Amino acid sequence: MKKPTFLFGLLCISVAASAQGQQPQQSSASAQRPSQWDPRSTEWHYPVPPKVSPGRNMAPPSDAIVLFGGSDLSQWESAGRDNAGGPPEWTVRNGELVVAPGKGSIRTKEYFGDCQLHIEFKSPPPGEHSGQNRGNSGIMLQSRYEVQVLDGDNNHTYVNGMVGSIYKQSAPSVNAYTKNGEWQVYDIYWKAPRFGAGGELESPAIVTVVLNGIAVQNNYVLKGHTPYTGLPSYTAHGRMPLSLQDHGTEVAYRNIWIRNL
Ligand code: MG
Fold first, then answer.
1. Average model confidence (pLDDT) across the chain
2. 165 half-sphere exposure, CB direction, 13 A CA radius
């Protein structure tokens, strides 16, 4: 058994020495070629990406902005008609942020553009509700582009308004919702629209939506905002708050964090 190992070792040393011996010759040859043939011409070393520590078990990564971690609502304000800009009137209980029906939507104080958003939600018990009345809320990217939040457990509705849809624009590729009463996990990757100096659209918004680890929107190009009635359109804007929709049902949220991209 020792002899083959010894021979293999000799072979390796021989190959290594041979490669080392050839290296100057190869460098000399490459010097006569166009610089594009030098592999170093397509390698760069700066700027060095900053070190970020991933979160474990869906905890926020080290560079995320925690929007809701279980108790603190200081990142939020009301977006309701009657109390816009005031303190959010949603309920915090058991580490969950729960929609207070009739109190209006809420929005972040901070404005965002391109971003990665992690947010978890839980639908309330269905009761007698169905369709759009069962656990409806919404994640309003830049306050105007809605990723639908809805109970997707055996709940019939129009498909471009179901959970995972870009509201009234794009149905999800699959229904990745699990069961009523279970937490659902959204990871959303958002590229904001760009507008020219005159307000004209230069490039539309693009979104990828992952629900419970399953991609349900893959680089969907938005046609504009996501109204209940009428057609989508764009109106020029810059960075905008993230908003969560009050649609009259007690949807719960937790573990909300965002990273600027
Ligand atoms: Mg909604």
1. 90
2. 20
Domain 65-260 has CATH 2.60.120.560: yes
Inter-residue contact 114 to 108 (CB < 8 Å)? no
**150, 163 contact by CB (below 8 A):** yes
Tokens representing 235? 């109106």
CA 194 to centroid of ligand 1, rounded, Å: 25
Contact present, 114 and 217 (Cβ < 8 Å): no
pLDDT band at 53 (very low <50, low <70, confident <90, very high): very high
Q: How far is the CA of 69 from the centre of ligand 1 (A)?
A: 23
CA distance 94 to 105: 21
Quote the longest CA-to-CA distance of the chain. 87
Q: Tell me the three state secondary structure of residue 37.
A: helix
Tens digits of per-residue pLDDT, 212-241?
Answer: 999 999 999 999 999 999 999 999 999 999
The mean pLDDT value for 59-88 works out to: 96
Spans of all domains in the chain: 65-260
Residue 120 CA to ligand 1 center (angstroms) comes to 15
Cβ burial, residue 190 (10 Å; 0-12/13-18/19+): buried
Rounded to the nearest angstrom, the distance between the alpha carbon of 23 and the centre of ligand 1 is: 64
Bridging pattern class, strands 106-112 and 240-244: antiparallel
Residue 115: which H helix or E strand, with range?
strand 115-122
CB 104 within 8 A of CB 246: yes
Query: H or E segment at 77?
Result: strand 76-78
Measure the CA–CA gap between 19 and 252, rounded to whole angstroms: 63
